Amino acid sequence: MEQIIQAEGAELVQFPAGQVVYSPREFRRCLGVLLTGQLQVTKGTLAVSVLEPGELFGAAALYSDAPEYATTITARRSSRCLLLDQSLVDRLLGEQPLIRKNYLHYLTGRIRFLSGRLQSLAQSSAEGRLARYLLANSQNGSLTCSATDLARRLGISRASLYRAFEELEHGGLIFRQGKTITIPNLSALEGAL
User: Fold this and answer.
1) Can you tell me the distance from the alpha carbon of 182 to that of 140, in angstroms, rounded to the nearest whole number?
2) Taking the CA of residue 161 as centre, how many other CA atoms within 13 Å lie in the half-sphere pointing to its CB?
3) DSSP codes of every residue in the chain
4) What pTM value is reported for the model?
5) Which residues sit opposite 144 in a β-bridge?
6) pLDDT tens-digit profile of 38-82?
């Protein structure tokens, strides 16, 4: 990592909490590595994911000629990122088999994640939408979010959300306490879909 930071085409950037890192019109054709802090990824009003240290961003712009970036990335906390331009990424992928393998693993994971998100959006029942959202966005089997915000993210009414909560709780697939939703068994919730 120290060698990469010193390489031509690498830049360390600090983003204060609340600052937009990438947006559809303001972005760089770089692969970003979140070193410290936390980044929120959104698509319009839909919360897509939260990035933690060690995670990558910017892959959608790196080898694309599209004039707009696919999402908006905002610093949830003060965040330090390492940005690697395309020529440096090309060199690293060619010279470092482990980096190449890890990057391909990352891209495969992103394809699976986005496929799940599409399936979630196509899911017709409120229970299905809620289950898919929880599976995609929970961290360590837990998610904290207000019912109003969650209903908005899922595109359903609060009444439908509460019915979905009740159905999943009745099946022992989730437990709620205040704004925190706990998934005791991720595989069981996934299997229920």
Assistant:
1) 9
2) 18
3) -HHHHHSTTEEEEEE-TT-EEE-SSS--SEEEEEEEEEEEEEETTEEEEEE-TT-EE-HHHHT---SS-SSEEEEEEEEEEEEEEHHHHHHHHHH-HHHHHHHHHHHHHHHHHHHHHHHHHH--SHHHHHHHHHHHH-BTTEEE--HHHHHHHHTS-HHHHHHHHHHHHHTTS-EEETTEEE-S-HHHHHHH-
4) 0.61
5) 180
6) 999 988 877 778 899 999 999 988 998 889 998 999 999 999 999
